[in-house]
Write a structure and sequence with these properties.
globular; 6 strands; single chain; Uracil-DNA Glycosylase, subunit E; 204 residues
């Protein structure tokens, strides 16, 4: 919490005129969503600045462009809370709600925040699939859905886990620059996962 607020006070030079959010960041999207996209944590100068998850940073640029291509969003970019973005049939959130140092949340931060995602899922009554952006989100999804599978299913891009009850988990590499700049995650790869999520998330 102290680091999150210090970043908001000190700011980055490129955003020196912005008023930083500097508080926990909740999820965003369609309350009737069938697809729940779970990320890692707010970026220090992204969601921690703008107040909306995956908004104002390169990872968000990638994610929302993909959601637009998949028909889940009315526009391909998310830059501010008042930019007119609307999501349909999808809700985007994060396992950790406060920006962590070096974008690396600890297990303690994950455990401290997991009840927020669990409560979101309780309120989002139509969710049939959780797209987990990275291994951290995959592990968090297993916890918040109280999946007691033994052995626990391993994360991988394109991995699917169908628990006995509750939403299906889909694995997707996180759209971080480390993955997108190196080609570990490409547009066709994330498009395929979101197409599968749409298929699984449809009612009926």
């Amino acid at each position: 919490m102290e680091w999150r607020e210090r970043v908001a006070r000190e700011k980055r030079a490129a955003f020196s005129d912005d008023e930083y959010w500097g508080r926990p960041v909740g999820g965003f999207g369609d309350p009737d969503a069938g697809v729940y996209v779970l990320g890692l944590a707010p970026a220090a100068h992204g969601a921690n600045r703008t107040g909306r998850v995956f908004t104002g940073d390169r990872s968000g640029d990638w994610l929302f462009a993909a959601l637009f291509r998949a028909g889940f969003a009315n526009q391909p970019r998310s830059v501010a809370r008042d930019d007119g973005l609307r999501l349909e049939r999808v809700f985007v959130s994060a396992a950790v709600r406060c920006a962590p140092p070096a974008n690396k949340p600890t297990p303690a931060e994950r455990d401290n925040c997991q009840h927020y995602a669990r409560r979101e899922l309780e309120l989002l009554r139509h969710v049939r699939v959780i797209v987990c952006l990275g291994g951290f989100a995959w592990a968090s999804a297993l916890r918040i859905t109280a999946d007691a599978s033994t052995p626990r299913p391993r994360f991988g891009h394109g991995a699917e886990h169908h628990p006995g009850r509750g939403p299906t988990l889909l694995g997707c590499f996180h759209p971080s620059q480390q993955n997108t700049f190196t080609g570990r995650l490409t547009e066709p790869m994330i498009d395929t996962v979101l197409a599968r999520a749409r298929e699984l998330g449809m009612d009926g």
